[in-house]
Amino acid sequence: MPPPALLEVIALTPEDAIAAQAGGADRLELVTDMAADGLTPSVGTFVEVRTAVDIAVRVMLRLGDGFAAGDTGPLVRAACELRAAGAEEFVLGFLDDDLAPDLPAVERIVAELDGCPWTFHRAIDRAADRDALRKQLADLPGLDTYLSAGSTTGVDDGMGTLITEASRRGAPGYAQGLMAGGGLRLDHLPRLRAAGVDAFHIGGAARPGGWTAPVDASAVREWRTALDAPVR
Prior knowledge:
Blueprint: E1 6-11, H1 14-23, E2 27-30, H2 43-52, E3 56-60, H3 72-84, E4 89-92, H4 103-113, E5 118-120, H5 130-137, E6 143-148, H6 155-167, E7 177-180, H7 189-195, E8 199-202, H8 217-228
Parallel strand pairs: 1-2, 1-8, 2-3, 3-4, 4-5, 5-6, 6-7, 7-8
């Protein structure tokens, strides 16, 4: 029997974190400002969330809209401050002007994480060459997950890519886990689970009232129940 699927929920506040945990989430992605698709939260918010729950918390390292790193100095400082406050897991991902991974920026930030586990987020869906990106990043310390919809427009259009990448698990560049997220719906789960995808990321799906409303524990529980059902 395969191990339980991982469910990660976007949280913006301690209240979100508490509801996500109550609903059965395994992990949080902690961000602020979803109008910019999720930026680095304050150290204070991280500390409040870390105190409120006992599930894993991955903290976003991203200071502006888009996938360009810009000046990495502020990102490095943010990483150091969060590490000092107790953060142990992170989310990041930057592309250069050619839509290839911005290796100097990523490597500089990862060096400050000192081996902490981290996710390369949906910047992969904007990359000019997904396969090349994976192989370029393959040996970076701590990288254990790619968050992807398989497409810039969401899982509906990216389903084929996700299934193909799941089938390559263990091949060069594909040792890291694949976490599906981005327009993810419950009806996507059977095909993804059958293909071997075992990690799932939800944001708006955990907030029936929209992004101005908090995470709803019952909505998270619906996903937990679906993911705990036998894979067919």
